[in-house]
Amino acid sequence: VQEPEEKKIALExxxxxxxxxxxxxxxxxxxxxxxxxxxxxxKTVPEEVVKMIFSNISSIYQFHAKFFLPELQKRMEDWxxxxxxxxxxxxxxxxxxxxxEYVKNFEKAVELITIWSEKSLxxxxxxxxxxxxxxxxxxxxxxxxxxxxxxxxxxxxxxxDYVKKLPxxxxxxxxxxxxxxxxxxxxxxxxxxxxxxxRLQNLWAVYQRLGLEDDIVDPSNELIKEGxxxxxxxxNNSTSEKYLFLFNNMLLYCVPKVIQVGAEFQVHxxxxxxxxxxxxxxxxxxxxxxxxxGKQRTLELQAR
Length: 304
Description:
Elements lengths: L4 H36 L6 H8 L2 H21 L8 H7 L6 H21 L1 H11 L9 H25 L7 H37 L13 E11 L4 E10 L2 E7 L8 E8 L4 E4 L8 E5 L4 E5 L2
Antiparallel strand pairs: 1-2, 1-7, 2-3, 3-4, 5-6, 6-7
């Protein structure tokens, strides 16, 4: 007898979950535990660093090993008399918010592994030693750490497929659809965490180029556009190279530094967007010119 399609997918969910729990066990019970033990002996790296690398992997491991996997196994054993997984996945979904922290921390974690492997030979050797073990299957710690980042999208795909294959009259239909909706929200939540992290990293990079001026550094700002611009001097009819950063709330008029120590630009003028006026000019000598005026000053600028 051919197994129904939805059961095949449910079994695939169970099999991948089992493999995933093994991977989490490796991360939490082997890598984290052994690195932590060595850190406590003061031999490799500070304990804080190990904690920062592994973020909240322990909670994630405990949740999957002690709760989700056993529940899923029970469901699959009872499949013949009670073919459903939607209710279990609904219980799982809210807990997947735990991943937000792990995902947000992932890039920093990988960076820390690189930095401390260079700084501390014992740290590097211990990781290499664990990676040689059979359980690691010739893959690096970084590779294993990527697994939780990819797990939620995997649930989403499997469940989408499961819902698609369910016969209309299946007793699991309502639950499975609701579960899919919940997983979708969590996936969005975790993507939003990544996007927010990238936005802040880019913003910080811009602030560094501007020399970290106190009144400019604000995490809620959003960079909209940046680029070179020519400043027109009406006195002697010449232009000089300047640089603009347009944020959601301010325009920064900058001068590129000749000697770039620390910062790349010096901020000459800050114009707040809410009192800023922009007016196009039809200047025969200088095409693509416009006026930008703030409270203090008006600038005549020429774009490329």
